[in-house]
Amino acid sequence: MSFEEDDRVVLHDEHSEFDGETGTVTQTMESMFGDVTYTVSFEDGQETGIPEDALEAAEEDADDEDEE
Fold first, then answer.
1. In the chain, where are the structural domains located?
2. pLDDT at residue 65, as a whole number
3. CA 45, CA 53: separation in Å to the nearest integer?
4. Is the pTM of this model over 0.85?
């Protein structure tokens, strides 16, 4: 699954201080080999160069469901 800017995601990287936290994709970067990495902003900072397989889509907030 690919992500776009402003998508809410959960980071899964045991080596990151943000492991298990939810953040917002602020930038996507594609290498010349076609690999995409992401910059994700969290409440306490940001992480860059995150591979797609270390991210999962965050669940929608309950407030968002009420608006449907």
1. 8-58
2. 47
3. 21
4. no
Q: Which residues contact 32 (CB under 8 A, 6 or more apart)?
A: none
Q: How far apart are CA 37 and CA 42, in angstroms?
A: 16
pLDDT tens by residue, 4-54: 999 999 999 999 999 999 999 999 999 899 999 999 999 999 999 999 999
SS3 sequence of 10-59: EECCCCCCCCCCEEEEEEEEECCCCCEEEEEEECCEEEEEEEHHHEEECC
Q: Which tokens in the block code for residue 8? A: 């809410």
The mean pLDDT value of the chain amounts to 90
Q: What is the token pair recorded at 40?
A: 């994700």
Question: Which residues face 27 on adjacent strands?
Answer: 39
